[in-house]
UniProtKB/TrEMBL annotation:
Its EC number is 4.2.1.152, 5.3.99.4. InterPro entries: Cyt_P450, Cyt_P450_CYP7A1-type, Cyt_P450_E_grp-IV, Cyt_P450_sf. One of its GO terms (molecular function) is monooxygenase activity. This is Prostacyclin synthase. It is a single-pass membrane protein. GO terms for biological process: prostaglandin biosynthetic process.
């Protein structure tokens, strides 16, 4: 009897696999590449190294193709001239449904009345205008205090650390759920101060790597570490949920936190859902800023000409002082940051196809998209690493986004036509990043404080920028394989 049941289950599974494998391409659809494995398709290659996989598919099929990935069909569009056909269609293509899938998969969060438009409106009230100015001032004051607490008391003593660990710690610790910013030393009211083992190793390795680092399709885990990593990630979630719960917060909350809580209550979210939603917001506002600062400083520390140019500009902008005004133009720094993001920002911009749609390319070609499929833009591959747009795209060139007269460069071309989208680290269209001005200023202020107040250098002068983890594409900034060991100390009075 048992063998009969097993055989029936096996036959049923095979029939289902064959059913999923029967799809064929019509003349009006993009090239279809289902892969050799039924149902699974190209999931393993996609998860192992999405950039290499998509680049290979581009060489094989061109700027648009459909691949099977774990039972789903994903149409990848790589022609930046045609991106608006996806970004501006809010009738046939939808982001919110896919966002809800990710919320459930990563944060175990299901909101009964999820309204992304209202959430963005709430964020705009706190990341624009006077609220943004106040937030920036608070951020700067606390970054200054936190950085001062990190250096050795004796100006002549070097302190050793990992650059990723330092950057992520500094840009994460000034935000606490109990208020606008925590004190420079850990306290019972701050998020990081409430975590045993110290905020830096805990957050930079456990939170970012285990909880937030995986791509949309994770690469097969290393057998020796999968059990421990899952256990650590589960523990991280539980501890953060406790800290972000109503009981874990102190009585004084930031205006943003209070307004967002009221929004969740209106949506009918219970206490557990509110806690998970707060964890999602914590990642959304902080998950990429620290890694972006790390990559920029890593490039500057390993490219002396770039570091010298940024230091000179900061010196002129601050006019010998210790403060960099938000409105002060810094085109050299801006170019170095944009070049860093071009190389390391790797989000998937994904839409669910709600109804059959005809996608018209900039070339005039038309392709039919099927209801239930997904459309994906992968800007890292195109336009950001396109050799037709950028000469030697794999190299870091701090002045790539500067004209010969030192003004910002905003004109890039492909196929003889000017590009509207030549980098896309912040997304685009209606789902572009609301917190972009705040994030840029946070990175700029941190880099300014580090290069103007510290002597900092790699522990090994021959060190290069760490390699990027190819299994971490999809959510934003890629992650390094390992850290960049550095040493730093306060600059001498003569050099300040």
């Amino acid at each position: 009897m048992l063998w009969t049941v097993l055989v029936l289950l096996l036959v049923s599974s095979l029939l289902l696999l064959l059913l999923f494998s029967r799809r064929s391409r019509s003349n009006r659809e993009p090239p279809l590449d289902k892969g050799a494995i039924p149902w699974l398709g190209h999931a393993l290659e996609f998860g192992r190294d999405a950039a290499s996989f998509v680049t290979g598919m581009k060489k094989k099929h061109g700027d648009i193709f459909t691949v099977r990935v774990a039972g789903r069909y994903v149409t990848v569009l790589l022609d930046p001239h045609s991106f608006d056909a996806v970004l501006q269609d809010r009738g046939s293509l939808d982001f919110s449904r896919y966002a809800q899938v990710l919320m459930d998969r990563i944060f175990k969060l299901r909101l009964p009345k999820y309204n992304p438009g209202e959430e963005k409106a709430i964020m705009r009230t706190h990341f624009q205008g006077d609220s943004l100015a106040a937030l920036n001032a608070t951020m700067l004051a606390n970054l200054q205090a936190l950085l001062a607490s990190e250096v050795a008391p004796n100006r002549t003593d070097w302190k050793r650390d990992g650059l990723f660990s330092l950057c992520y710690s500094l840009l994460f610790r000034y935000v606490a759920p109990s208020g606008d910013a925590p004190p420079p030393s850990p306290s019972a009211g701050s998020l990081t101060g409430s975590l045993s083992g110290g905020p830096r190793p805990f957050f930079s390795r456990c939170v970012q790597s285990c909880l937030f680092g995986g791509g949309l399709i994770s690469a097969p885990p290393r057998p020796a570490s999968v059990t421990g990593e899952k256990k650590t990630a589960g523990g991280v979630r539980e501890r953060l949920w406790r800290l972000l719960s109503l009981k874990g917060l102190s009585g004084e909350s930031s205006p943003w936190l209070r307004q967002y809580r009221r929004h969740l209550l209106r949506e009918g979210a219970d206490g557990d859902a509110q806690t998970r939603a707060m964890l999602l917001q914590l990642w959304a506002t902080q998950g990429n800023v620290g890694p972006a600062a790390f990559w920029l400083l890593a490039f500057l520390l390993t490219h002396p000409e770039a570091m010298a140019a940024v230091r000179r500009e900061f010196g002129r902008a601050a006019q010998g002082g210790n403060r960099l005004e938000q409105q002060q133009p810094t085109p050299v720094f801006d170019s170095a940051l944009e070049e860093t993001l071009r190389l390391t920002a790797a989000p998937f911009i994904t839409r669910e196809v709600l109804q059959d749609k005809t996608l018209r390319m900039a070339t005039g070609h038309e392709y039919r998209l099927r209801r239930g499929d997904r459309v994906c833009l992968f800007p890292l591959v195109s336009p950001q690493m396109d050799p037709e747009i950028y000469q030697e795209p794999e190299k870091f060139k701090y002045n790539r986004f500067l004209n010969s007269d030192g003004t910002p460069k905003r004109e890039f071309y492909k196929g003889g036509q000017r590009l509207k989208y030549y980098t896309m680290p912040w997304g685009a269209g209606a789902n572009g990043c609301v917190g972009k001005p705040f994030a840029i200023n946070a990175i700029r202020q941190l880099v300014f404080l580090v290069v103007s107040r510290l002597d900092v250098e790699p522990c090994d002068p021959a060190s290069g920028v760490p390699a990027m983890d190819p299994g971490r594409y999809g959510f934003g900034m890629v992650q390094p394989v390992g850290d960049l060991p550095i040493r730093y100390k306060v600059k001498s009075e003569e050099s300040l």
